[in-house]
Amino acid sequence: MSRMPKRGSAGITRRGFLIAMTAVGVSFGFPRHLMAAMDPASPDGKVLPSEGDIYEPSLWYSIDTAGKIKVNIMRSEMGQHVGTAIARILADELEASWDDVEIIHVDTDPRWGYMVTGGSWSISQSWPVYRQAGVAGRTALIEAAAKKWGIAAKDCTASNGKIISSKGELSYGELVTMGLTRQFTEEELKTLPLKPNADLKLVGQQVTSLDIANKTNGKTIFGIDAKVDGMVYANPILPPTRYGSKVVKFDDSAAKAVKGYQQTIVLDDASGSVPGWLMVIASSFNAAQKASKLVKVTWDAGKTANVSEADIIAHGKQLLGDQTKGSILDTGNTDTGPVFASANSTIAEEYITSTVLHAQMEPLNALVFKNQDGIWEVHSGCQWQSLTLPVLAAALGEEEANIVIRTYMLGGGFGRRLNGDYTIPAALTSKALGGKPVKMVMIRPQDMLFDSARSASVQQLKMAFDDKKAVTAMEHHATAGWPTQVLAPGFMPKGTNGEPYDPFSIAGADHWYTVGAQKVRAVSNDLAIATFRPGWLRSVGPGWTSWAVESFMDEAAHHAGKDPLQFRLDMLIAEGRNAGSTPVAEGGAARQAAVLKKAAEMIGWGTPQAKDTALGIASTFGQERDMPTWVSCAVQVHVDKSNGIVNVQKLYIAIDAGIIVDPNGAEAQCQGAALWGLSMALYEGTELLNGQYKDSNFDTYTPLRLGQTPDVKIEFIPSKMPPSGLGEPAVTPVAPAIANAIYNAVGVRLRKIPMKPSDVKSALTKA
């Protein structure tokens, strides 16, 4: 497989839908010997029993004799209310009463297909699947009622959990009680007509989120809350390097004085996830923590013990200097050399981003044991179960069929929990103890030290102009540590030169501007990969490639002597490859132009500003060209020249994400994404020092604080297009918009993020 599953194609739809699975047939019910699924509306997370028989119109939901509808959600919940959004898609097409809907976050049984929550894919991928499931059930229910009444199906309608006709009405529960046997072939399913989008009643409207009550009253069960009888606690002792460290010896004699301490073990990890780790076992969390501080360990450190961030940046520049390295993306005409050779003028700039930690609020944790049926149960929050299962299998020496992940609610994911490496030490410890339940909870410094950070990056951009200052060619060369190369190399496509590349470390560089000949080259930074385990972080590639693209576009506009807004609009031409190639991307560059105009209107582009205060603008898309969400950001920024502090006063975002399924959730996600973009622009970033991240807690790693939050406004462009994603795209234009505003305010151009006050002062001194 060269890429992630396409939306609405491979994976969750390939088996089709099975209709009329009743109590006397095959059931999609959960195995009762496992705590295999979770209902976030239930105080203890347990799935409430169904009433009477159930009718399962598809893999994705059931209806019981009381008319209650349980919707199966294979996406992870980490604050985005994904279950509510997906369930309303199905309920709308089914014509169900929202009061009858429950959501069930499922286990990792193979029946669910490929399980991953990331890339802002959940709604876009689920849209066709759950609508098809809903229409299948609605059709079966209408046909059953029509048969009962002895009338034609066309004379019946479905509404609010009932089938209605001139003969009266029958509730869904009553129809289930009567027994349903209707089945559809795959071909028949494809012919079932969906409701016109204009007739959708729940999509786009305000409804009660099905998981919000327990989140606000503290009853939601997160991975950190997982517990089973007889479990012990394991606290890790991490080695001095991410890779290559080996335990030479350890002395736990002092730890034996701690009440509850049991033993310390050195992990033997066939998966390569946690080399050089020790686990301190105790009867309580506190005892494990206390004892671990008393264990003395001698390691043979790995080869990267002296690598610094500066080394990785310098190596990245060296890599980019070798034109034979890397993969060339298919951007149409990539033969830029002759155009640059004949250009009237050219510009070239370099942009850098620092290492960024996830720093999610719930630290990494996992509870693992072997149950009485010989199945390994993994209790933890996880974003990419289908990636984690084979790693667990390799570590445990087991078949994947003998492992199940019960995915809990996530207290923040942001991409960190796509990489499930944190389940491995708990699993290996349990195996060493004969399958005994083992719970590992990392404290903050351990969590940060073990993070799969967003790699530092180097990007070099060039642009060619003719004698009228029109753009004739552009090049974008980018290097960073590639997470997909390390964690999921099978998802890497090949460029036009036959070399594979990480799509999540270059997306965004293949922008929608018409620039003539265009070359995009992606290069893997092997030193970064050898030093730490790069990870996907919210907004992935576009979070840093767009920083370079939109900063550079602003610089190009000034070189051309044009207004930065108009300069961009002139190049957003919806023709050829920039017209869009998928239903979600239909409209292409024209839709990006629309959000750019909207953001400019929101901020009052062109209006006079106070001294050392200015507006900045940027326009991007996320996550990829086949599923773009068009985003533009306009900011108002004041720069204090005396201390270099940048005060973002207004942060306005315009978005076209197609049909908005969940308005409240959509706005909340975009607010959070925009503020994360601000955080990474001005405050958030670490660096590697002696092979490890320099920061280990929030005293030195300082994300955006509440008092630094500007006036934030989010506006969505009304659309009839299929929905795209919203969890990540609003991150992407914020940093360049701020950099562009700083330039307009005080005349200095910053090309590295985060943009610290010291960077501003230094630039002002040199200006």
From TrEMBL:
Pfam families reported for this sequence: MoCoBD_1, MoCoBD_2
Domain (Aldehyde oxidase/xanthine dehydrogenase a/b hammerhead): residue spans on this chain: 217-303
GO MF: oxidoreductase activity
Superkingdom as given in the UniProt entry: Bacteria
SMART domains to which the protein is assigned, alphabetical: Ald_Xan_dh_C
PANTHER family named among the record's database cross-references: ALDEHYDE DEHYDROGENASE
Protein name in the entry: Xanthine dehydrogenase family protein molybdopterin-binding subunit
Record organism: Shewanella polaris
